[in-house]
Amino acid sequence: MKRGHPSQQGAALLSAMVVVALVATLASAALWQQWRQVEIETAERGRSQTQWMMTGALDWTRLILREDALSGPDKNVDHLGEPWALPVQESKLSTFLSQDQQWREGDSEVFLSGQITDAQSRMNVMNLIEDGRVSPEALARFAKLFQRLDLPAAQLAELAARLQQATARITPNATRPVSPADAPLMPQQTSQLVWLGLSADTLGVLAPHITVLPVPTPVNLNTASATVLEAMVPGLDAGGARQWVRQRERGHWATLDAARLALGPSGQGIDAKVHSVSSQFFEVRGRMRIDQVVQEELAMVQRDTGQVRMLWRVRSSTRHAADETAPTSASRALQ
């Protein structure tokens, strides 16, 4: 039997090795693609499930606010002693969500927490504009807040001027209409006030005390903080505001007249146009944690005659709880 030429044998061996390497590469690529598709599907399914659970939690909060408005002796009064004001501490939902209500090793751990905040416990930026012009009274109240928080007054002036321009852009009968190209966008959320000239540092200090609502609103005396009360009530200083809060903890005020009577001389500055004991707008914050993945949502709802509708909803980026890196997915707002 004749043997092939050594060069032919080497070429055959090399060809076989190339074929094996090519097959292994293709198999690895196929396996990686399959693994990638499984991971994408798993992540998408988890995101969808989390979104549905968060939607259910928001619907539950809307139900709480609706029932609060329709029942009870104080249905026309909102205060911090009501059920809606109690925060929900992080609670485990894994057992409740499983089909047989039994948690097994390997199942995802699901935790939910959240809180409803009275948006009218804060100073509404929209109060700065009245009939298309900057309101001197509202500007004075905000100036007092800026002074109390040691913030630059120049930024308040710019905020008021640019808010007037933004209002003129969307109001047909504005007294001083401006070109749409020059006017800033109308903000819907507190974080968007940077559009109107506030710096990030200033906004960070202001955020707990201000809000942006669709219409001008009074401040609820039953839920406002001492800082907000100090800015909103003429002649009230920091000590007097803290005393108000301590007195309020012993019992809320059912009417503005009751608040005036309880507060004595300081209560004479209470005005039904800028103060109230009830609220229509509420901020809902929810947080869901599944294993090491955290998702947060923030929504603004309006309650009117027992109906609670959502004005906007923002979902934060999903991130790993153990790795607090910068978010990678954009939030969304629903109008």
Automatic annotation (TrEMBL):
It is found in: Cell inner membrane. Residues 219-272 form the T2SS protein K second SAM-like domain. The gene is gspK. Keywords: Cell inner membrane, Cell membrane, Membrane, Transport. Pfam families: T2SSK, T2SSK_1st. Belongs to the GSP K family. Residues 121-214 form the T2SS protein K first SAM-like domain. The keyword Cell inner membrane applies. This is Type II secretion system protein K. The lineage of its organism: Bacteria, Pseudomonadati, Pseudomonadota, Betaproteobacteria, Burkholderiales. GO terms for cellular component: plasma membrane. It comes from Limnohabitans radicicola. GO terms for biological process: protein secretion. PANTHER family: TYPE II SECRETION SYSTEM PROTEIN K (PTHR38831), TYPE II SECRETION SYSTEM PROTEIN K-RELATED (PTHR38831:SF1). NCBIfam families: T2SS_GspK (NF037980).
